Every structure is written in C-alpha cells, then in structure tokens.
Amino acid sequence: MPQIVDLQNLELMSFASELDPTRRVSATFPISSATGTAASCAVYFELEPGAHVGVHTDSSEEFIVVLEGEGLALLGEETAPVREGQVVVVPAMERHDLTNTGTGPLRILGTFAGSTSVATFEDDLMPGGPRVFVIGAPTPIALPLEQEMAASAH
C-alpha cells in the first residue's frame, strides 16, 4: 500500500519558546524512517504572523516548499523574501530560519535528503534546552545540546 499524506488533515505539535516570544511553530513529521521511508523525510509546519522557527542547521539538504503565505528566509547570513509557490534550497549544515512576514498563516513543507535528519538550533527552546531534534527517530528525541554532545562521545 502506498504511503499517502494528507497535508490538509495533519495533527500538529505546538512549540513555543519560553525565551523568545516570536519563536512559535506548529509542526509534524509525517514522512521519515519512522514511517518506513529509506531515503527521505519531511516536516510540515505552520507559522502565524510574526512568528519564526529559530535559527538552526539540519544534517541533510532541505527543500523548503512555500505552500501558502509569505515570509523572510534566512540562509547563512543572507535574507530573502519568499512567497507561495517558491522553493528554497538549504544545503546540509547551512544555518537557516523562516519568519512569517504576512498577515495570514505561512504553511511550509520541508523535504530532506535522508530518512533521518538532525536539527540543531542555535538557541534553547526553553531554559536548559532542548536544542537538538531528531526527525525519523522511532520515538521523538529532543535533547539539550550538552547532553547530545556527551552522548555522542560514548
């Protein structure tokens, strides 16, 4: 049976930073190694006006597909406006962020060149973390950066 994802009917998780009131995102990871893919994964997320994801890097190349709305994309040290119907290519390990600059929701589908991807944020989501998120893990993994570094040393 083919794996089919209905983007109009997804259960989203809400993430809001205790440290940055503009860092608010509703997201889900509908396609990954956890759902049976071997070479790709995806994130679907929505940002309300004025909200942003948070500056981070991903271990895999990402295509950010703007499904609805308009925003400002940060890639490296450069910014560029983005709108519905555009695709932003983000190289692996390139710092990036996305901010909703419009008056309605910004809806995004991000696809990754790997069935598991590790996102590392520059700032904690809340005091003490987490900063590292693993897309495609059998169970959701989110760790403070210090714990992730200590775990990888063993």
Record keyword descriptors for this entry.
154 residues, mainly beta, Jelly Rolls, 6-stranded antiparallel β-sheet, 4-stranded antiparallel β-sheet, 13 strands, 5% helix
Describe this structure in words.
This protein has 154 residues and is mainly β. It has a single domain, classed as Sandwich (Jelly Rolls), CATH 2.60.120. Helices cover 5% and strands 45% of the residues. The protein has one helix at 145-152; strands at residues 13-16, 24-31, 41-47, 56-58, 62-68, 70-75, 78-83, 87-90, 96-100, 106-112, 117-121, 132-135, 141-143. The strands form 3 sheets. Strands 1-2-3-10-5-8 form a 6-stranded antiparallel sheet, with no helix packed on it. The longest helix has 8 residues, at 145-152.
Question: Strands, helices and their partners?
Answer:
Blueprint: E1 13-16, E2 24-31, E3 41-47, E4 56-58, E5 62-68, E6 70-75, E7 78-83, E8 87-90, E9 96-100, E10 106-112, E11 117-121, E12 132-135, E13 141-143, H1 145-152
Antiparallel strand pairs: 1-2, 2-3, 3-10, 4-11, 5-8, 5-10, 6-7, 6-9, 11-12, 12-13
Strand order, main sheet: write it out: 1-2-3-10-5-8
The general outline is globular
The computed structural class is mainly beta
User: What is the CATH architecture assignment?
Assistant: Sandwich
Count of separate structural domains: 1
Which regions contain 5 or more consecutive residues with pLDDT less than 50?
none
- Average pLDDT over all residues: 90
Strand % is 35-45%
CATH class: Mainly Beta
